[in-house]
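quick one, 327 residues, struct below
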Amino acid sequence: MDDTEDLLRATLHDRSAQIVAAPLLDPVRRRADRQRRRGHVVATGLAAAAVLLGGPALLTVVTPDAVPDIAAVPADPPDPRTPVRLGPAASPLPTFPFAPRVRPDGYGRPVAQIAAGEVILRYSGAAGRWLTVTAGTVEPPVLDPGPVASVRVHGRQAALRAASGASPASSVRWRESSGLWVEVRADAGLKTKELIRYAEGLRPGAVAVAVPCSFARVPLDMPLDVVTPTAMSFRPAALPPSDDFVGKLTVLLSAPGEQPPADARPVTVGGRPGWITTGPDATSLAVDLDDRVLVVQVGAGLRLSDGELVSFAAGISLTRHAEVGVG
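---
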């Protein structure tokens, strides 16, 4: 029995040496090479068949050597538009720094407005009568090319330009001791004597800007660039100040009767019907207020979703200064 066990043990030892030495991976490698060559042949045959039939290949065969690189797929390009962030108003509106003591006949009451980011005082009278007052740290450009006469206002030297054939307006400008440049301009119907009298009647004070709307939320980091009785416009920081509404977020009041276009998207704003339209220059939301239409325009360079736009419009209330725009 012991001899038999010794013989079996020796035999197993010899066989194990032969198994370890044998190249067991060679058959596996040969089989994988045959499958790879077969895949290339099939792909080549399908491409040749497509050429012979005169049409594009309807089947793409992915071979082990042609696995797509998922990481190489390009990502969506970033949105170049500036996002509009809405939040509570952080500071009160600026005021005009002078209060008038003289009211010229036929010019109505003064209204503080904002034009190109600057607060101005404006009078709008009948039959083309108008008068404006500006005050700022930078000397305003010369708009009236008439001859210049030297006068004094508030004890300071001032430049008077009377209306003429080349200029339909009169103006007087001077620099206050505080450093502010002040200019009064009026239509040609106001005599220069009355113009100087009005300028002398300006005293340091504060005239609040007459806004047509109040807001539950406002665009953050976007200063008011235009405020009139019919419109308020918020300017992105990247745009220079201007009197227009291009590229800005603007709230307007228009006359009723406008019908929504066929491609308008119907919405409800504070329980009232409205519609959103998108054009090449702006996206607009119109809200029917019965006797007038509230319009919110978002410049094409700004990003504000339909839901955010509706929420912003729902927080707008009209003030007693609001007027419907013409044109």
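The longest strand covers residues 118-124.
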